[in-house]
Design brief:
Largest sheet: 3 strands, antiparallel
Helix content: under 10%
Number of helices: 0
Radius of gyration: 12 Å
Structural class: mainly beta
Number of strands: 3
Strand order of the largest sheet: 1-2-3
Length: 50
């Protein structure tokens, strides 16, 4: 579970969606404590994006 960059909470994170941006995969999250919406880069070893 990611940590909110604003309030540093790790318990009330809610997954929203996944984005493929260029060569990266990003998950978008919303913090249930402060309402901050942020993206986190996800690394998958061995995945090929065609």
């Amino acid at each position: 579970m990611p940590e909110c960059p604003r309030c540093e909470d790790t318990k009330k994170m809610h997954y929203i969606s996944r984005f493929i941006t260029g060569d990266e995969i990003e998950d978008q999250w919303i913090c249930g404590s402060c309402g901050n919406v942020f993206r986190e880069v996800v690394h998958f070893e061995g995945w090929l994006l065609d």
